[in-house]
Every structure is written in structure tokens, then in C-alpha cells.
Amino acid sequence: MKYLVCVDGSDNADKAFQRVKEIFQKTQDELYVMIAHSTGDAEKSEQELSILKNYAKICLDNGFNSKMVAAPIPPSGVGAAICEKITELQIDTVVCGRRGLNTIQRLFAGSVSRYVMENATCNVLIVKS
Known about the structure:
By secondary structure, the protein is of the alpha/beta class.
């Protein structure tokens, strides 16, 4: 089984990663840890790649068959970047955190987890905050 977990340095993303650790089968599964990174801000992009390196160490320490994925954020947004990787990597299950936005916040800020849930070509596990 191929899992893709989406991280961004937030507590919610960390909870999603922890959930994957609970269900991951070391001998059979493949884990892709993805961060969508900024392309216009070098300092922010460097911070995001540092987050990915921290997850790479955790995966190595746990003996996971894992790969790190950094994808630039397209004009269509983070959700679209995630869905593109799902298709490209032939992912079976994507796991992402949920920020817990209220209705008004979702209206203005959008919801990556909702976009992924509605557009992914695989199973979606959303870990609530």
C-alpha cells in the first residue's frame, strides 16, 4: 500500500503523520511524506524543506520505506499540488490534517483537506485536530 502524508510544520500535520505511523506496515507499505513549498520566498522555502528533513529523520529512525516529496505550490493551490502527486505516485491513501476552520474562515481561506477529499483519486484519511 502506498501512503502519502501531507506535512507543513503544524500540529495538525504532525497528528496526521502520527496516525500514519500507527497504521503503517514496515515490511509492505511505502510512505511518501510531502510538503508543498513556496517558490517566491527563499527563506520560507528553506524552512519548509527543513521540516521535510526532520520527517525524513523520523522515518529513517523508524525503519520506514519512505521517500520525501517537495512540490511547488501551483497557482491552483496546495490541494491541487497534493492531488497531482497522488496521481503521479499512484497513491492508495492520502492522510492530511484538518485545521478546524469555522464556516466563515473556510469561505475566505479555503480548505486544503476539503479540496483533497473532493478531488483525490484515492482514499482520503483526514485527521481532525
